[in-house]
Write a structure and sequence with these properties.
Elements: E1 3-7, E2 10-13, E3 18-25, E4 33-39, E5 46-51, E6 58-60, E7 68-73, E8 78-83, E9 92-99, E10 111-112, E11 116-121
Length: 122
C-alpha cells in the first residue's frame, strides 16, 4: 500500500550539488523511519542515510558524512537528501525506503521507491 517516488536525480559535475526528493503515500508517514540507499553498477545496494520518524535523529554512511544531509517534512510527507561536494564515486541509482524503526540494513526496510539516477562527471 505504501508507495515511494523519488525525484531530483540528474547529471552534475564533481563538486556540484543535487537535492533528491521522495514523496510518500498510501500509509501513515510518521510511523516510519526513512532511509536512502544507493546502488552502483556491479555493486551491492548500500546504506547512505536514515532519519527517525520525527526527523530529530539522522545517521550517515562514513562515505557521505559531512557532505550529505537528510531531512523530512512530515506535513508534506516528503523526505530529502541534500548532496553537496559530489564525487564521481557517488554515481549510482538512489533509492528511498521506509522502515518501522531506525536502522541501516537493506533487508529491514519494507518499502522501496523506483530509484533515481545520479551521475557525477569528472
Amino acid at each position: 500500500q505504501v508507495q515511494l517516488v523519488e525525484s531530483g536525480g540528474g547529471l552534475v559535475q564533481a563538486g556540484g550539488s543535487l537535492r533528491l526528493s521522495c514523496a510518500f503515500s498510501g500509509g501513515i508517514f510518521i510511523h516510519y523511519a526513512m532511509g536512502w540507499f544507493r546502488q552502483a553498477p556491479g555493486k551491492e545496494r548500500e546504506f547512505v542515510a536514515v532519519i527517525s520518524w520525527s526527523g530529530g535523529n539522522a545517521y550517515y554512511a562514513d562515505s557521505v558524512k559531512g557532505r550529505f544531509t537528510m531531512s523530512r517534512d512530515n506535513a508534506k510527507k516528503t523526505v530529502y537528501l541534500q548532496m553537496n561536494s559530489l564525487k564521481p564515486e557517488d554515481t549510482a541509482v538512489y533509492y528511498c525506503a521506509a522502515s518501522g524503526f531506525v536502522n541501516m540494513n537493506v533487508s529491514l526496510f519494507d518499502y522501496w521507491g523506483q530509484g533515481t539516477q545520479v551521475t557525477v562527471s569528472s
